[in-house]
Amino acid sequence: MIEKGGRARAGEPAVVRTRAELAAALEAAPRPLGLVPTMGWLHAGHRSLVARARTECATVAVSIFVNPRQFGSQADLAKYPRSEARDLAICAEEGVDLVWAPGVDDVYPAGFDTTVRVGAVARPLEGAARPGHFEGVATVVAVLFGAVRPDRAYFGMKDAQQLRVIARMATDLSLTTVVPCPTVREPDGLAMSSRNVHLSLAERAAAPVLHRALAAGRARWEAGERDAEAIRDAVRAVLAGEPLARVEYVSLADDATLAELDRVEGPALLSLAVRFGSTRLIDNLALG
Ligand code: PAF
After folding, report:
1. Alpha-carbon span 249 to 144, nearest angstrom
2. Disulfide: which of 11, 124, 182, 183 matches 158 by Cβ 3.0-4.6 Å?
């Protein structure tokens, strides 16, 4: 186990904040090292990433950092749920070895002046809806990879475009191996997300319509439909039945490039973004 950098007791992760503390803890960390980057408010999806890392790595590290550069508005950033004590308890339960919980100045020290911009795969969908979002994500993940130097890094498929953006960057810059992990869902189909906490009771009851709608689209594809708009229409028809759902987009795109399709002839990604009140949720299912 890790001795340098602040390990308190066996069973609890070492918690480090500064880059110097992190470097000291990493010196003592057995390899391979798996990193699970998070913004905290951990849930079953994060637990599954840690569990996967546990099976493949001698050391499992979790980063907890709410990255201001990936939020479009200060209001959205301010309302992002946070509880470090809760997150550390979950990390301890999951057998995490090392938690890096830096402050903003540890991640972006004075003079920091680099932005990472990934190309085509970052442009549509979330990239179009949230200008600058993926530059913020790619930049912080590059900082995390540079500081932690993980052998493997674990990301959920719920954030499908984020996964592709980070995988592109990691491959192009030879940073690490990105491991995609399946979306974890509530029993009613709602994908686990830190943002679910903002849903009112009525919105929470309505939100499983996302998975039902995607499943309806996939059922059309499984039945042999290859016209992409017909499949998108099947998704929209289910969403239209839920008055609390305000649809931002329904996409059926090439699985690798995320370019919108006319016909589905190969692997594709069916995805959507929908607002319930002030909470914006995304979800997706793979076709093929
Ligand atoms: O998916 C997230 O929680 C964040 O976007 C990430 C990858 C930790 C970067 O801040």
Report:
1. 31
2. 183
